[in-house]
Design brief:
The complex is a heterodimer of chains A (114) and B (115). By secondary structure, chain A is mainly β. Chain A contains no helices and 11 strands. In chain A, the strands form 2 sheets. In chain A, strands 2, 4, 5, 6, 9, 10 and 11 form a 7-stranded mixed β-sheet that branches. In chain A, strand 7 and strand 8 form a beta hairpin. Chain A starts with a strand and ends with a strand. The mean pLDDT of chain B is 92. With 115 residues, chain B is mostly beta strands. In chain B, strand 7 and strand 8 form a beta hairpin. Classes of the chains: A mainly beta (114), B mainly beta (115). At the A-B interface, strand 4, strand 5, strand 9 and strand 10 of A face strand 6 and strand 11 of B.
């Protein structure tokens, strides 16, 4: 049973560019959450997707957007990249309601903005 | 809003000695609390979780944590540290208990284990 997978593992972009990160949830999970972890800090919640809609959102600008597909996989898009967007981006999935509240994390995508 | 405070940014112990990583929480209702571990260049792994059942929670790799409502604490302990325990540990609170909602992380405690 594969866990949460993310691609790519590493990415280098320049300021002003746009980036798309991808996540496949753990088998049987239908909810996907995204977090940003800056160097030396704890992860910060970006947003959560359920039934192809954004269900919750953290304190991130509209440059951060997402999508969830019918197979529950998800994408995180960041437009107009800033140097401060350099971070580890983590995806987490969780099972259907009633199946538990634990979020299982992928290995992350490390984004460097130059 | 729910929040957690990890009282130590860095803890160093000798191999074979006890580990104590401290966490205090703030919540307007009975919270769901978690400890996650992050090894270098790895994702986050769940160590244990408290969801209003038994106050002493046992996790993986010999770790356990005790929920103390009177002290608003959820400290992580292990009787005997192993070199492989060296990692970053995060205390985490769930926004809405019982649901897979937003997680709020502490700032982390780096555990160093020496010979």
């Amino acid at each position: 049973d594969a866990g949460v997978t993310q691609s790519p593992t590493h990415l280098i972009k320049t300021r002003g560019q746009q980036v798309t990160l991808r996540c496949s949830p753990k088998s049987g999970h239908d909810t996907v959450s995204w977090y940003q972890q800056a160097l030396g800090q704890g992860p910060q919640f970006i947003f959560q997707y359920y039934e192809e809609e954004e269900r919750q959102r953290g304190n991130f600008p509209d440059r951060f957007s997402g999508h969830q597909f019918p197979n529950y996989s998800s994408e995180l898009n960041v437009n107009a990249l800033l140097l401060g967007d350099s971070a580890l981006y983590l995806c987490a999935s969780s099972p259907p309601s009633g199946g538990g509240e634990t979020q299982y994390f992928g290995p992350g995508t490390r984004l460097l903005v130059l | 809003a729910q929040s957690v405070t990890q009282l130590d940014s860095h803890v160093s112990v000798s191999e074979g000695t006890p580990v104590l990583l401290r966490c205090n929480y703030s919540s307007s209702y009975s919270p769901s609390l978690f400890w996650y571990v992050q090894h270098p260049n790895k994702g986050l792994q769940l160590l244990l979780k408290y969801t209003s059942a038994a106050t002493l929670v046992k996790g993986i790799n010999g770790f356990e944590a005790e929920f103390k409502k009177s002290e608003t604490s959820f400290h992580l302990t292990k009787p005997s540290a192993h070199m492989s325990d060296a990692a970053e540990y995060f205390c985490v609170v769930s926004d809405i208990p019982g649901t897979a909602s937003k997680l709020t992380f502490g700032t982390g405690t780096r555990l160093q284990v020496t010979l």
